Amino acid sequence: MSIVYDAAARTLTLHTRESSYQMQIGPLGHLLHTYYGRRAEGDFRSLHLLKDVGFSPVPHELDGETRGWSLDTLPQELSGANSGDFRLTSLCAVTADGRRGGSLRYVRHEIRRGKYALRGLPAAFDPDGEAETLSVTLADEALGLEAELLYGVYESRDLITRAVRVTNRGSAPLRLEKAASCCLDLPFGDWDLLHFHGRHAMERQPERVAVMNGVQRIGSGRVSSGHQHNPFLILCDKHANEDAGDCLGLMLVYSGSFEMELEQDQMGSLRLTAGIKSEGFSWTLQPGESFDTPEALLCFRHDGLNALSRRYHRLIREALCRSRWSGAERPVLLNNWEATYFNFDHRKILSIAREAKELGVELFVLDDGWFGRRSDDRSSLGDWFVNREKLPGGLEPLIRDIHALGLRFGLWVEPEMVSENSELFRAHPDWALAVPGRLPALGRSQLALDLSRREVADWVFETLVGLLRRYPIDYIKWDINRSLTDLYSQALPADRQGELAHRCTLGLYGILERLTAEFPEVLFEGCAGGGGRFDAGMLAYFPQIWCSDDTDPIERLTIQRGTGYGYPLSAVGAHVSASPNHQTGRRTPLDTRAVVAMAGGFGYELDPGKLSEEEKERIRVQIARFRELSPLLREGDLYRLTELDEPRDFEAWQLVSADRGESLMSLVLTHPRANPRPLHLRLKGLDPAARYRVERLDLFDAFLPEKPEPLPEIYTGAALLYAGLTLPRMMGDYPSVQLVLKKAED
Ligand code: DGJ
Asked: How far is the CA of 272 from the centre of ligand 1 (A)?
């Protein structure tokens, strides 16, 4: 068993292969945290600070006995409110007669095989029957508040999941004001915070900062996880790097408004809470009703950021994403967005598709503009019928023609939104979110549908079902292009408006749950103006998400690196687009664009009719190469070969197959120098005892000032790991390298 209860010490310990997590039922029944870190056996209660630090309240029952036992200084599993802990709150409720807070004490616990599930929310599952669940029930009798703390333990994956089920055990309604998914108190350590911030077309920029005294917070109030902050963060030891040191990850399986807060308190102890954004949130529970929080995924590794990332990658691919496409080979696609934007017709699309087919593309995706009267982004969202001006014959003949070329067909939709200038809005103006008496803010000239309403969610679902039944569609790109504002639902009573944001997210999940179950063979790609909703919640349904509207490969190096700290390459939509790039104007070599896009769900987004014959030939080779490398790119273990904040002239990463038999190293030179230092790299993840043959070494678009010395054909793993290799000197704008190694037969 990986969950152990010690009745004498009253400790509950969760063990994964490399980590241990312990809690203890305190003398008065408070559930105290004792330890989360590298695997260790023991009773960690002695780590508790039992000292009167002044102005930290003591539970009434202990007065006279000690002044050194305080909720304000002891680490806890789920911090309450209004009962003696002045640090971040995790759970706060208000009764009908105004009793407010949360003072939670142990009632019972249960250890069971398998992984708990959540109601209406995505959560990790148990694909190989190894997971165990710990449920610890706590209660605040005065409020009739019960909190069931749920822990899922994946021993071999080094992952612990958490969620909370809150129940009203009283006889009158109870209003939740805050319900975090997870609270983690870390009394010791010298931590940095690594988080992923950004903006549209510049998502998930990694930033590592020191933890400060006081509160640090990231989050979103946009009812989507947003471009600005990602619901994933890492705490790492000050000295930790990619390959060494303590790292602790926290990822929310949630796509709505969220918050992650960090408080370093007066005694230097750190508290981390994460969950639904509490500002503006409330949820009323009738007697007997329960509320499930979103799930949090926790991982601790003592051996650096690379190891931590790989645990999340594997969990998302194998135990979170339910799509049959998650582990499967995906078709190479070409999307017409950057090729045509809104300006296309049947002929144009078909000619792009024909050219794409000749390049080796397998799936053609028709992006925005095929429906309603949509000729720009100001109209027609909601009118999911064919735009007869652009496609007079409808979609059927187009899809038929595309299928006849031997291509699969994909379609773009933005079903959560409505344009004011649409038949849908004219028929159902109340379906859009808006505060009565005031004009709602617009985003990209559009409004958001109120998915908290069953009839609206059903309409979205039926509309998609209608499209998927009517047309032979192989792939759907599911986009949203605004943040939600003016939160008010015509369908909720006044005292329940605080539920709206979360209800919209639940409404979305309900649609996705039904749709992906009904059309399991359809490949879905998420999108939110690029990567504005790139989170584990969406990845439970969609195996891939368009990573960013910035397709410049040099910008993508940082965006994709940041994304890769938590999310697998197989989830990252990445395309080769035209040069000069449409977002930055930068010119980059075609093969470098492909090297970067191969670190993701590989595709193209350009007009192949504008390519030279030589470029077309290179694309054919790229696609063939991608096919060859695809298992490694999809399932290989990722190693970042450069440190985050070190000054460097290149970005490099490596994929290694699970059996360490095969590896691909990719490198992009970002800053050519006049008199550069040697381009030296130590590889990672290889078997030191094995011999590796250099299968391929491609230096793409490099001007080589000196004739390079040929590299050896065979290396030992140890040589590549410890001595490394020096690549030839390369000059020019953004040359790149791919090095393929295979274990040599003895
Ligand atoms: C935003 C997406 O990120 C783009 O790829 C494209 O689909 C546009 N929306 C279409 O409006």
From this structure: 35
